[in-house]
Amino acid sequence: MNPPNAILDETDRAILRALQADGRLSNARLSEKLALSETPCWRRLKRLEAEGVIEGYQANLSRKKLGYGVVAFVQVTLGNHAGETPLLFERLVAGMPEILSCHNVTGDCDYMMQIVAADLDAYGTFVRDRLRKLPGVASIQSNLSLRDVKSSSALPI
Predict the structure, then answer these.
(1) Architecture of domain 10-50 in CATH?
(2) Average pLDDT, whole number, for the chain?
(3) What is the pTM (predicted TM-score) of this model?
């Protein structure tokens, strides 16, 4: 079995590392950093985008400066796994911006989520009025973050 990035050569990996560090790099600056001419750099970048290795670009925002003081890691267990219930649950979760991530997992629960809220009152209201009302939800267990030790979306390249 090939390692996850076996299809990428060192130049591709260098492009990905540079863009993870600064997604606003222009092609000119990127090619300069990598000691490549602009055209081959642009072609590689477009290939990485076309192949789906680069899924998109976004700014990393400060949740605290935007007023989200609470981060909760939430385990959700469904009581009904039959029929459309899990699919409906997943579609509704996908439309809730407070839920930053949701993973269908193995273990004691069915889903693990990361949720943000302004404060504990707002989080409590979200759980009571929205999360508990989702189809099939049998139990919810919340773990509140006390502080960020490491928070990154950068992948090891």
Answers:
(1) Orthogonal Bundle (1.10)
(2) 94
(3) 0.86
